[in-house]
Design a protein that fits this description.
80 residues, mainly beta, four-stranded antiparallel sheet, 52% strand
Length: 80
């Protein structure tokens, strides 16, 4: 069994990756801190289903929120 690297959410190669097992038929958005929700792309990363958006990074610890359909929930935080 392959060991998973860092936990999600995280920044990698200019993308913010958030774990997302929602149906592909449901729209998904990601919000970082106080920014507006942005539509997310669906992808696979290290064998896991993720939602992702382009991100230039953050300078301090920032909350990441995932919205699937009409339901929003905290997905974790990024930064230090």
């Amino acid at each position: 069994m392959r060991e998973r690297s860092a936990t999600l959410p995280r920044l990698e190669d200019g993308w913010l990756l958030v774990a997302c097992d929602a149906s592909v038929l449901v729209p998904v958005w990601i919000k970082v801190g106080r920014d507006e929700f942005k539509p997310a792309y669906r992808d696979f990363h290290e064998g896991r289903r993720v939602a992702k958006i382009r991100s230039s990074g953050v300078s301090r610890k920032t909350t990441v929120t995932l919205r699937v359909g009409e339901t929003s929930s905290a997905a974790g935080s990024i930064g230090s």
